[in-house]
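Title: Comparing notes on inverse folding

I've been comparing how different people in this forum approach sequence design from structure. To keep things fair, I'm posting one structure and asking everyone to reply with a full sequence. Here's the target:
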């Protein structure tokens, strides 16, 4: 078979070249395609939806309706909603992403992606974008449920958005670091254990004031505690942007994403 030359003409008689021009797509287009694929996979995964949607919603309804934990002055739903929003970010960006990515490594999915033109940073960016889409759905559902329970938020929506984005970056980096360095079974166990421990000790449903001072000082440095307290300061107390909590999240985001980009293994 002879290959067409640059002097060949098409059916209309227009000269041109018919030779293929192989090459990678622009990085933004590759990231967008990977993000769309990751989003579809997350939405089809029943266990992930249980972790990211059902559990936070049940916790919000249960702890708002039943006086299980002393949340201090004010209505329980006003205290719980910011913490549950932080839990939703934790479940999606950290726990769910760590487990799914860990098993993608085990089954060889990431190995095949590693042979494609998609760079490591493109894979990490695509997964983070997919997480943001899922989180937007979570926030819409949980806030609707909170309003039905009588929630009355305060503060600036821009501050809330900034905190959620910083929290997503922090948890996403930590989840991808875990998934890219540990075995899938170890990731499954560690991610679920971290979810339970952070649910109890991260200021989500139990105020950090209930812990001893020394323990509280350590817990306040955790990303879920910083996100919970920051969202609570804005949404419950009507405060401005909590720079201290945002700074904690930024440090975790830089460390987590930087370590994930450096040490993430495709197989």
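Reply #1:
Here's my take.
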């Amino acid at each position: 078979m002879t290959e067409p030359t640059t002097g060949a003409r098409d059916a209309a008689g227009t000269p041109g070249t018919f030779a293929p021009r192989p090459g990678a797509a622009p990085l933004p287009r590759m990231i967008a395609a990977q993000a769309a694929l990751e989003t579809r996979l997350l939405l089809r995964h029943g266990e992930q939806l249980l972790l990211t949607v059902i559990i936070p919603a049940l916790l919000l309804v249960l702890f708002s309706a039943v006086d299980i934990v002393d949340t201090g002055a004010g209505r329980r739903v006003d205290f719980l909603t910011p913490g549950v929003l932080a839990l939703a970010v934790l479940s999606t960006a950290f726990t769910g992403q760590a487990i799914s990515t860990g098993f993608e490594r085990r089954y060889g999915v990431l190995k095949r992606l590693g042979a494609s033109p998609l760079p490591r940073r493109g894979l990490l960016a695509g997964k983070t974008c997919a997480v943001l889409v899922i989180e937007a759905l979570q926030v819409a559902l949980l806030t609707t449920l909170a309003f039905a329970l009588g929630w009355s938020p305060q503060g600036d929506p821009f501050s809330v958005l900034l905190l959620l984005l910083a929290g997503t970056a922090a948890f996403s980096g930590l989840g991808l670091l875990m998934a890219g360095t540990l075995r899938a079974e170890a990731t499954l166990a560690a991610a679920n254990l971290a979810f339970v421990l952070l649910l109890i000790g991260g200021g989500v449903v139990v105020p950090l004031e209930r812990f001893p001072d020394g323990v509280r000082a350590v817990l306040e440095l955790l990303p879920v505690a910083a996100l919970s307290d920051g969202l609570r300061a804005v949404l419950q107390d009507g405060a401005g942007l909590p720079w201290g909590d945002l700074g904690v999240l930024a440090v975790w985001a830089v460390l987590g994403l930087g370590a994930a980009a450096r040490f993430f293994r495709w197989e």
